[in-house]
Write a structure and sequence with these properties.
The chain is mainly α. The protein is about 80% helix and about 0% strand. Helix 14 runs antiparallel to helix 15. The longest helix is centred in the middle third of the chain and has 37 residues. The protein starts with a helix and ends with a helix.
Protein backbone atom coordinates (compact mmCIF):
# COMPACT_ATOMS: atom_id res chain seq x y z
CA UNK A 1 0.00 0.00 0.00
CA UNK A 2 2.85 2.38 0.90
CA UNK A 3 4.66 1.64 -2.35
CA UNK A 4 1.52 2.45 -4.36
CA UNK A 5 1.18 5.74 -2.53
CA UNK A 6 4.80 6.65 -3.30
CA UNK A 7 4.29 5.76 -6.97
CA UNK A 8 1.23 8.00 -7.16
CA UNK A 9 3.15 10.90 -5.66
CA UNK A 10 6.03 10.43 -8.12
CA UNK A 11 3.57 10.22 -11.05
CA UNK A 12 1.90 13.47 -10.05
CA UNK A 13 5.30 15.12 -9.59
CA UNK A 14 6.30 13.98 -13.09
CA UNK A 15 3.09 15.52 -14.48
CA UNK A 16 3.87 18.90 -12.88
CA UNK A 17 7.50 18.90 -14.05
CA UNK A 18 6.42 17.88 -17.57
CA UNK A 19 4.04 20.84 -17.70
CA UNK A 20 6.71 23.25 -16.42
CA UNK A 21 9.53 21.89 -18.60
CA UNK A 22 7.77 20.90 -21.85
CA UNK A 23 4.14 22.02 -22.20
CA UNK A 24 4.55 25.67 -21.11
CA UNK A 25 7.67 26.34 -23.27
CA UNK A 26 5.90 24.70 -26.22
CA UNK A 27 2.86 26.98 -25.93
CA UNK A 28 5.13 29.98 -25.29
CA UNK A 29 6.45 29.55 -28.83
CA UNK A 30 2.92 30.39 -30.00
CA UNK A 31 2.94 33.53 -27.77
CA UNK A 32 0.56 32.01 -25.22
CA UNK A 33 1.10 33.54 -21.77
CA UNK A 34 2.66 31.05 -19.30
CA UNK A 35 0.06 32.08 -16.72
CA UNK A 36 -2.82 31.22 -19.07
CA UNK A 37 -1.09 27.97 -19.98
CA UNK A 38 -0.69 26.93 -16.33
CA UNK A 39 -4.31 27.84 -15.53
CA UNK A 40 -5.76 25.96 -18.51
CA UNK A 41 -3.52 22.94 -17.93
CA UNK A 42 -4.53 22.93 -14.27
CA UNK A 43 -8.19 22.85 -15.28
CA UNK A 44 -7.58 19.94 -17.67
CA UNK A 45 -5.52 17.70 -15.37
CA UNK A 46 -7.20 18.68 -12.09
CA UNK A 47 -9.98 17.04 -10.07
CA UNK A 48 -12.67 18.81 -12.12
CA UNK A 49 -11.17 18.22 -15.58
CA UNK A 50 -10.36 14.95 -17.33
CA UNK A 51 -10.61 13.20 -13.97
CA UNK A 52 -14.42 13.38 -14.25
CA UNK A 53 -14.27 11.47 -17.56
CA UNK A 54 -11.69 8.79 -16.86
CA UNK A 55 -11.89 5.44 -15.11
CA UNK A 56 -9.14 3.67 -13.24
CA UNK A 57 -8.43 1.35 -16.18
CA UNK A 58 -8.09 4.15 -18.77
CA UNK A 59 -4.55 4.80 -19.95
CA UNK A 60 -4.96 8.60 -19.75
CA UNK A 61 -5.65 8.28 -16.03
CA UNK A 62 -1.85 8.46 -15.75
CA UNK A 63 -1.96 12.09 -16.95
CA UNK A 64 -4.42 13.53 -14.41
CA UNK A 65 -4.29 14.51 -10.75
CA UNK A 66 -7.42 13.44 -8.90
CA UNK A 67 -6.48 13.95 -5.25
CA UNK A 68 -7.95 17.29 -4.00
CA UNK A 69 -5.96 17.09 -0.74
CA UNK A 70 -2.71 16.86 -2.69
CA UNK A 71 -3.80 19.84 -4.79
CA UNK A 72 -4.46 21.86 -1.62
CA UNK A 73 -0.96 21.11 -0.34
CA UNK A 74 0.53 22.26 -3.64
CA UNK A 75 -1.54 25.45 -3.51
CA UNK A 76 -0.50 26.21 0.06
CA UNK A 77 3.17 25.72 -0.73
CA UNK A 78 2.83 27.77 -3.91
CA UNK A 79 1.21 30.65 -2.01
CA UNK A 80 3.95 30.59 0.64
CA UNK A 81 6.62 30.91 -2.04
CA UNK A 82 4.67 33.60 -3.88
CA UNK A 83 4.24 35.70 -0.72
CA UNK A 84 7.92 35.21 0.13
CA UNK A 85 8.92 36.59 -3.27
CA UNK A 86 6.53 39.54 -2.87
CA UNK A 87 8.06 40.33 0.52
CA UNK A 88 11.57 39.98 -0.93
CA UNK A 89 10.81 42.47 -3.71
CA UNK A 90 9.40 45.07 -1.32
CA UNK A 91 11.63 47.70 0.19
CA UNK A 92 10.97 50.25 2.93
CA UNK A 93 13.01 52.80 0.95
CA UNK A 94 10.98 52.17 -2.21
CA UNK A 95 7.73 52.40 -0.24
CA UNK A 96 8.77 55.76 1.20
CA UNK A 97 9.67 57.15 -2.24
CA UNK A 98 6.26 56.20 -3.64
CA UNK A 99 4.29 56.69 -0.40
CA UNK A 100 1.80 59.15 -1.90
CA UNK A 101 0.77 56.85 -4.73
CA UNK A 102 1.16 53.61 -2.75
CA UNK A 103 -0.83 54.54 0.35
CA UNK A 104 -2.92 57.35 -1.12
CA UNK A 105 -3.90 56.16 -4.60
CA UNK A 106 -3.48 52.44 -3.89
CA UNK A 107 -5.27 52.61 -0.54
CA UNK A 108 -8.24 54.55 -1.97
CA UNK A 109 -8.50 52.11 -4.87
CA UNK A 110 -8.72 49.09 -2.55
CA UNK A 111 -11.22 50.72 -0.15
CA UNK A 112 -13.57 52.03 -2.87
CA UNK A 113 -13.42 48.91 -5.06
CA UNK A 114 -13.82 46.52 -2.12
CA UNK A 115 -16.73 48.55 -0.72
CA UNK A 116 -18.68 48.66 -3.99
CA UNK A 117 -18.13 44.99 -4.89
CA UNK A 118 -18.94 43.90 -1.30
CA UNK A 119 -22.22 45.85 -1.44
CA UNK A 120 -23.14 44.23 -4.76
CA UNK A 121 -22.26 40.75 -3.46
CA UNK A 122 -24.33 41.34 -0.32
CA UNK A 123 -27.23 42.56 -2.45
CA UNK A 124 -27.18 39.24 -4.32
CA UNK A 125 -27.78 37.30 -1.10
CA UNK A 126 -24.27 36.46 0.08
CA UNK A 127 -23.55 36.63 3.80
CA UNK A 128 -21.79 39.66 5.27
CA UNK A 129 -18.49 37.85 5.89
CA UNK A 130 -18.36 36.28 2.44
CA UNK A 131 -19.35 39.59 0.80
CA UNK A 132 -16.50 41.38 2.58
CA UNK A 133 -14.02 38.72 1.45
CA UNK A 134 -15.33 38.79 -2.14
CA UNK A 135 -14.99 42.58 -2.27
CA UNK A 136 -11.55 42.54 -0.67
CA UNK A 137 -9.97 39.93 -2.91
CA UNK A 138 -11.60 41.18 -6.14
CA UNK A 139 -10.22 44.66 -5.44
CA UNK A 140 -6.76 43.19 -6.13
CA UNK A 141 -5.26 42.86 -9.59
CA UNK A 142 -2.76 40.36 -10.95
CA UNK A 143 0.73 41.61 -10.10
CA UNK A 144 2.37 38.90 -12.22
CA UNK A 145 0.26 39.67 -15.32
CA UNK A 146 0.48 43.47 -15.19
CA UNK A 147 4.21 43.60 -14.41
CA UNK A 148 4.92 41.14 -17.22
CA UNK A 149 2.91 43.27 -19.69
CA UNK A 150 4.71 46.45 -18.61
CA UNK A 151 8.09 44.72 -18.84
CA UNK A 152 7.41 43.31 -22.32
CA UNK A 153 6.39 46.76 -23.59
CA UNK A 154 9.25 48.62 -21.83
CA UNK A 155 6.70 50.70 -19.89
CA UNK A 156 7.99 50.19 -16.33
CA UNK A 157 9.81 53.54 -16.31
CA UNK A 158 6.86 55.56 -17.63
CA UNK A 159 4.30 57.39 -15.51
CA UNK A 160 1.74 54.67 -16.23
CA UNK A 161 4.27 52.02 -15.19
CA UNK A 162 5.19 53.80 -11.95
CA UNK A 163 1.53 54.39 -11.04
CA UNK A 164 0.57 50.80 -11.81
CA UNK A 165 3.52 49.53 -9.78
CA UNK A 166 2.50 51.73 -6.82
CA UNK A 167 -1.09 50.46 -6.84
CA UNK A 168 0.09 46.85 -7.18
CA UNK A 169 2.51 47.40 -4.30
CA UNK A 170 -0.35 48.50 -2.05
CA UNK A 171 -2.42 45.54 -3.23
CA UNK A 172 0.43 43.18 -2.34
CA UNK A 173 0.56 44.72 1.13
CA UNK A 174 -3.24 44.33 1.42
CA UNK A 175 -2.91 40.55 0.99
CA UNK A 176 -1.67 40.31 4.58
CA UNK A 177 -4.75 41.87 6.28
CA UNK A 178 -7.03 39.92 3.92
CA UNK A 179 -5.39 36.67 5.04
CA UNK A 180 -5.85 37.75 8.66
CA UNK A 181 -9.50 38.56 7.92
CA UNK A 182 -9.94 35.13 6.35
CA UNK A 183 -8.51 33.50 9.46
CA UNK A 184 -10.92 35.49 11.64
CA UNK A 185 -13.95 34.43 9.62
CA UNK A 186 -12.80 30.80 9.45
CA UNK A 187 -12.37 30.62 13.24
CA UNK A 188 -15.68 32.27 14.08
CA UNK A 189 -16.02 32.12 17.88
CA UNK A 190 -19.53 33.50 18.01
CA UNK A 191 -18.32 36.86 19.28
CA UNK A 192 -18.68 40.08 17.30
CA UNK A 193 -16.60 40.52 14.16
CA UNK A 194 -14.83 43.47 15.78
CA UNK A 195 -13.70 41.36 18.75
CA UNK A 196 -12.51 38.54 16.46
CA UNK A 197 -10.59 40.98 14.25
CA UNK A 198 -8.94 42.68 17.24
CA UNK A 199 -7.95 39.29 18.66
CA UNK A 200 -6.49 38.18 15.33
CA UNK A 201 -4.64 41.49 14.94
CA UNK A 202 -3.18 41.11 18.44
CA UNK A 203 -1.92 37.62 17.54
CA UNK A 204 -0.56 38.93 14.25
CA UNK A 205 1.28 41.79 15.93
CA UNK A 206 2.84 39.43 18.50
CA UNK A 207 3.85 36.91 15.83
CA UNK A 208 5.30 39.64 13.60
CA UNK A 209 7.14 41.24 16.52
CA UNK A 210 8.69 37.87 17.42
CA UNK A 211 9.67 37.17 13.81
CA UNK A 212 11.19 40.64 13.39
CA UNK A 213 13.04 40.36 16.72
CA UNK A 214 14.51 36.98 15.82
CA UNK A 215 15.27 38.29 12.36
CA UNK A 216 17.18 41.29 13.64
CA UNK A 217 19.10 39.28 16.25
CA UNK A 218 19.74 36.03 14.39
CA UNK A 219 19.14 36.52 10.66
CA UNK A 220 21.83 39.02 9.66
CA UNK A 221 24.74 37.29 11.52
CA UNK A 222 23.58 33.93 10.16
CA UNK A 223 23.43 35.20 6.56
CA UNK A 224 26.84 36.86 6.99
CA UNK A 225 28.32 33.55 8.17
CA UNK A 226 26.78 31.57 5.31
CA UNK A 227 27.61 34.27 2.77
CA UNK A 228 31.28 34.24 3.75
CA UNK A 229 31.43 30.46 3.29
CA UNK A 230 30.70 30.83 -0.44
CA UNK A 231 28.40 27.80 -0.43
CA UNK A 232 25.23 28.55 -2.41
CA UNK A 233 23.58 25.23 -1.50
CA UNK A 234 23.88 25.92 2.25
CA UNK A 235 22.66 29.45 1.65
CA UNK A 236 19.60 28.14 -0.23
CA UNK A 237 18.88 25.56 2.48
CA UNK A 238 19.00 28.25 5.16
CA UNK A 239 16.70 30.57 3.19
CA UNK A 240 14.12 27.78 2.84
CA UNK A 241 14.51 26.99 6.56
CA UNK A 242 13.83 30.65 7.42
CA UNK A 243 10.72 30.73 5.20
CA UNK A 244 9.28 27.48 6.57
CA UNK A 245 10.09 28.43 10.19
CA UNK A 246 8.40 31.82 9.87
CA UNK A 247 5.39 30.17 8.22
CA UNK A 248 5.18 27.61 11.03
CA UNK A 249 5.36 30.37 13.65
CA UNK A 250 2.42 32.30 12.21
CA UNK A 251 0.49 29.04 11.78
CA UNK A 252 0.99 28.28 15.49
CA UNK A 253 -0.48 31.72 16.23
CA UNK A 254 -3.61 30.71 14.33
CA UNK A 255 -2.73 32.82 11.28
CA UNK A 256 -1.88 32.01 7.69
CA UNK A 257 1.44 30.36 6.86
CA UNK A 258 1.63 32.68 3.86
CA UNK A 259 1.84 35.62 6.27
CA UNK A 260 4.97 34.15 7.85
CA UNK A 261 6.55 33.58 4.44
CA UNK A 262 5.79 37.21 3.50
CA UNK A 263 7.44 38.48 6.69
CA UNK A 264 10.50 36.30 6.03
CA UNK A 265 10.85 37.85 2.58
CA UNK A 266 10.41 41.34 4.03
CA UNK A 267 13.14 40.68 6.62
CA UNK A 268 15.62 39.40 4.06
CA UNK A 269 14.84 42.36 1.75
CA UNK A 270 16.28 44.71 4.40
CA UNK A 271 19.64 42.91 4.54
CA UNK A 272 22.65 43.33 2.26
CA UNK A 273 22.05 39.77 1.02
CA UNK A 274 18.74 40.62 -0.67
CA UNK A 275 20.18 40.58 -4.20
CA UNK A 276 22.15 37.40 -3.54
CA UNK A 277 18.97 35.66 -2.41
CA UNK A 278 17.15 36.97 -5.51
CA UNK A 279 19.89 35.53 -7.75
CA UNK A 280 19.62 32.14 -6.05
CA UNK A 281 15.81 32.13 -6.09
CA UNK A 282 15.42 33.52 -9.64
CA UNK A 283 15.92 30.21 -11.52
CA UNK A 284 13.19 28.63 -9.39
CA UNK A 285 10.92 31.67 -9.44
CA UNK A 286 9.04 30.75 -12.62
CA UNK A 287 8.58 27.17 -11.38
CA UNK A 288 7.20 28.42 -8.05
CA UNK A 289 4.82 30.77 -9.87
CA UNK A 290 3.84 27.95 -12.19
CA UNK A 291 2.99 25.64 -9.27
CA UNK A 292 0.78 28.36 -7.82
CA UNK A 293 -1.13 29.06 -11.05
CA UNK A 294 -1.38 25.34 -11.81
CA UNK A 295 -2.93 24.74 -8.40
CA UNK A 296 -5.35 27.63 -8.98
CA UNK A 297 -6.43 26.05 -12.27
CA UNK A 298 -6.94 22.70 -10.55
CA UNK A 299 -9.39 24.28 -8.12
CA UNK A 300 -11.63 25.67 -10.88
CA UNK A 301 -14.77 23.55 -11.34
CA UNK A 302 -15.53 23.97 -15.04
CA UNK A 303 -19.04 22.55 -14.52
CA UNK A 304 -19.97 25.71 -12.63
CA UNK A 305 -18.83 27.79 -15.61
CA UNK A 306 -21.16 25.95 -18.00
CA UNK A 307 -23.95 25.93 -15.41
CA UNK A 308 -23.99 29.75 -15.18
CA UNK A 309 -22.46 31.15 -18.40
CA UNK A 310 -24.66 34.28 -18.44
CA UNK A 311 -23.83 35.34 -14.88
CA UNK A 312 -20.17 34.52 -15.43
CA UNK A 313 -19.91 36.87 -18.42
CA UNK A 314 -21.88 39.62 -16.69
CA UNK A 315 -19.75 39.29 -13.53
CA UNK A 316 -16.43 39.40 -15.39
CA UNK A 317 -17.46 42.41 -17.47
CA UNK A 318 -18.97 44.10 -14.40
CA UNK A 319 -15.87 43.66 -12.24
CA UNK A 320 -13.60 44.90 -15.05
CA UNK A 321 -15.84 47.93 -15.64
CA UNK A 322 -16.09 48.86 -11.93
CA UNK A 323 -12.35 48.58 -11.28
CA UNK A 324 -11.33 50.34 -14.49
CA UNK A 325 -13.65 53.30 -13.85
CA UNK A 326 -12.58 53.66 -10.20
CA UNK A 327 -8.86 53.49 -11.04
CA UNK A 328 -9.26 55.90 -13.98
CA UNK A 329 -11.07 58.49 -11.83
CA UNK A 330 -8.55 58.15 -8.99
CA UNK A 331 -5.61 58.53 -11.38
CA UNK A 332 -7.16 61.76 -12.68
CA UNK A 333 -7.50 62.88 -9.07
CA UNK A 334 -3.77 62.25 -8.66
CA UNK A 335 -2.98 64.45 -11.71
CA UNK A 336 -2.39 61.85 -14.43
CA UNK A 337 -3.56 62.80 -17.91
CA UNK A 338 -6.78 61.25 -19.23
CA UNK A 339 -4.99 58.81 -21.62
CA UNK A 340 -2.60 57.77 -18.84
CA UNK A 341 -5.50 57.31 -16.41
CA UNK A 342 -7.51 55.20 -18.87
CA UNK A 343 -4.49 53.04 -19.71
CA UNK A 344 -3.78 52.43 -16.01
CA UNK A 345 -7.45 51.61 -15.37
CA UNK A 346 -7.53 49.10 -18.23
CA UNK A 347 -4.24 47.51 -17.10
CA UNK A 348 -5.48 46.97 -13.53
CA UNK A 349 -9.14 46.24 -14.30
CA UNK A 350 -8.85 42.44 -14.10
CA UNK A 351 -9.09 40.38 -10.97
CA UNK A 352 -5.98 38.95 -9.33
CA UNK A 353 -4.84 35.38 -8.82
CA UNK A 354 -5.44 35.60 -5.06
CA UNK A 355 -9.18 35.84 -5.63
CA UNK A 356 -9.21 32.20 -6.79
CA UNK A 357 -7.39 31.04 -3.71
CA UNK A 358 -9.07 33.18 -1.03
CA UNK A 359 -12.62 32.57 -2.25
CA UNK A 360 -11.84 28.86 -2.51
CA UNK A 361 -10.59 28.82 1.10
CA UNK A 362 -13.61 30.82 2.25
Amino acid sequence: MEAAHDTTFIRELIIILTIAGIVVPLFHRFRVSPIICYLLTGIVIGPFGLTLLVHEDNWWNMAVISDPDWVERIAEFGVMLLLFMIGLELSVTRLWELRRKVFGLGGLQIILTAGIISAIAYGFGNGLQLSILIGACLSLSSTATVMQLLKERNRLGTRVGTTSFSILLMQDLAVVPILILLTVFANDTGASITVDILEALAKAVLAMALIFFLGRVVLRPLLQYLGSSGSSDRFMAMILLIVVSAAALTAEAGLSMALGAFLAGLLISETEYRHEVEVIIDPLKSVFMGIFFLSVGMMIDIRQIFANPYWLIVSVVGIFFIKSVIITLLCRLFHLTLPQSVETGLLLGQGGEFAFLIVGMA
